[in-house]
Design a protein that fits this description.
single chain; 430 residues; alpha/beta; D-Maltodextrin-Binding Protein, domain 2; four-stranded mixed beta sheet; disordered N terminus
């Protein structure tokens, strides 16, 4: 899904978080049995989450006060709360930001609770490793997911075209796109949304070339020539009319309702496997998913089982052990599992998966099977992105990608500027 954050809001959030690191995290309120929880997501996620907090309160006593925001608003608010020493006890955390929050001492290592409040003996090892920074555990994965291409199956049926499979390639986008255009589905639906400034799709493409976005020590892991090739690839699609035009793509402002899939402007959309349920809930057409295209027949390794999100504990929390108990309840209680199913990803405990699998509806079962059967598309988990990765994605890649799309920059100029500015951002952050 394409998500945009206003640059000023993003930088305000980053500044607040930096201030928190500089000042040291202020002490929280007096210890009690009560917890505060913050997460991003929509109303459907909030309803599930609040049902589980109710279960926890019934089982363990105390209260859990929760707050949720859209992704665009979440990070600036969390950073501001953290800077003020008033971060909620339990924080929903993303793989791209966990390093930054850990290194600024904004979230607490959880190792002291493992074997006690946190029972992780059977937890999926790759998901456990994904929550570690410098060897310490800072986040408990709430589910495994993978990038995926969501597809409007109904639109493919109307076009008389077979939907793609996990064997499809970027060349197939052109072939299918021309056939889709000729079918004139619903007066001009394109085959695919513009993915040129979708960071996960770029990352998947680079990984198939044996590269990554970032090195383990926080530098760019690709060359300017790679970005030129990437921007040219999408320029070719735009020129051929097989992907969404830039003026329409710009209408995607973040909410699912504004995406090219939901608005009916594209039949394919780069997203995440755990988003299938949310998309299907607001679409009448049948939605399914497939892997990202291969750079060549037989090429693989671009996907990985990413922790969809974590729960972390604020370093300022006076209730860290209580918060750890809540985390353990959230990932392992059978009744909680039935409520949560796979909305946040595939559960990371075998016992939880066993509870969930028999009760899944069609969309959730599709997601579970997709993540469990990636085959040769699956590669190793990449290093956690550096602290400045969020700024590079939200305030640089998306801006430059749009400028190239509108013709304000050539692919060569856009690539050179992107690599230069991304390198400077990483150097400043280091």
């Amino acid at each position: 899904m394409t998500i945009r954050v206003d640059r000023r809001k993003f930088l305000m959030g980053s500044t607040a978080l930096a201030a928190a690191g500089a000042m040291g995290v202020m002490p929280a309120w007096a210890q009690s049995e009560d917890l505060r929880l913050i997460f991003w997501g929509g109303q459907a996620r909030a309803d599930r989450t609040n049902k589980v907090t109710d279960l926890f309160e019934q089982a363990k006593g105390g209260s859990v006060q929760s707050e949720f925001l859209a992704w665009n608003d979440y990070w600036p608010k969390l950073a501001t709360q953290t800077a003020g020493g008033n971060a909620p006890d339990v924080i929903q955390m993303d793989y791209r930001y966990i390093v930054e929050y850990a290194k600024r001492n904004a979230i607490a290592p959880l190792d002291e609770f493992v074997g006690g409040a946190l029972q992780l003996a059977d937890f999926d090892q790759d998901q456990l490793e994904g929550g570690k920074v410098d060897g310490k555990l800072y986040g408990i994965s709430l589910g495994a997911n993978s990038v995926a291409m969501l597809m409007n199956v109904t639109a493919f049926e109307e076009a008389g075209i077979e939907p793609p499979t996990n064997d499809w390639t970027y060349d197939d986008i052109m072939t299918m796109g021309e056939a889709f255009k000729a079918a004139n589905v619903r007066g001009g639906m394109k085959l695919i949304a513009d993915g040129s400034y979708n960071e996960p799709m770029l990352n998947n493409w680079l990984r198939q070339k044996g590269k990554e976005l970032y090195t383990a020590d926080g530098k760019l892991a690709f060359e300017e020539a790679d970005m030129v090739e990437w921007f040219k690839l999408w320029q070719t699609m735009r020129d051929a009319g097989v992907c969404v035009a830039p003026d329409e793509q710009a209408l995607d402002t973040g909410p699912l309702e504004s995406t090219m899939l939901v608005s009916g402007k594209a039949a394919l959309l780069p997203a995440n496997s755990n988003q299938l349920v949310a998309f299907q809930a607001i679409m009448q057409d049948k939605v399914d998913m497939v892997g990202h295209p291969r750079i060549a027949p037989g090429a693989g390794g671009g996907h990985y089982r990413k922790p969809s999100m974590f729960f972390s504990v604020a370093a300022s929390s006076a209730n860290k052990e209580r918060a750890a108990e809540f985390l353990n309840f959230f990932i392992s209680d059978p009744e909680a599992a039935k409520i949560l199913d796979v909305e946040r990803g595939i559960p990371c405990l075998p016992s939880t998966r066993d509870v969930v699998a028999p009760i899944l509806d069609e969309q959730n079962l599709i997601a579970l099977n997709f993540v469990s059967n990636l085959g040769d598309l699956l590669g190793p988990l990449p290093p956690p992105p550096p602290a400045a990765a969020g700024e590079i994605d939200l305030s640089l890649l998306r801006v430059i990608g749009q400028e190239v799309g509108f013709g304000a920059r050539t692919p060569e100029d856009g690539a050179a500027y992107f690599v230069s500015e991304a390198t400077a951002i990483l150097e400043r952050a280091a």
